[in-house]
Design a protein that fits this description.
Layout lengths: L9 H37 L13 H21 L1
Helix pairs in contact: 1-2
Length: 81
């Protein structure tokens, strides 16, 4: 049929919203991983540490803070999918 404009149905709108939400959560998790990696690399680079020993250069409270941040991010993301 030509000349007929169709509006999006409720199912299509829900699918589009779900798809946007999925990619937003994936992006948020990616950014959180980049932050954790950058902080870890920063501490390792300052101390000239071999890559396999990077986590031994970060203070214990720093490791706990990074793990808490990652856990909160993944928990938030799991609740929003």
């Amino acid at each position: 049929m030509t000349g007929v404009t169709m509006t999006k149905g409720e199912g299509e709108l829900l699918e589009n919203r779900s798809r946007r939400k999925f990619w937003r959560v994936v992006g948020f998790i990616t950014v959180a991983g980049m932050i954790v990696g950058a902080v870890t690399g920063f501490f390792g680079g300052i101390n000239d540490v071999p890559i396999e020993e990077v986590f031994t250069t970060i203070p214990d409270w720093g490791v706990i803070a990074l793990l808490a941040f990652a856990l909160m991010t993944f928990t938030w993301a799991a609740g929003h999918l």
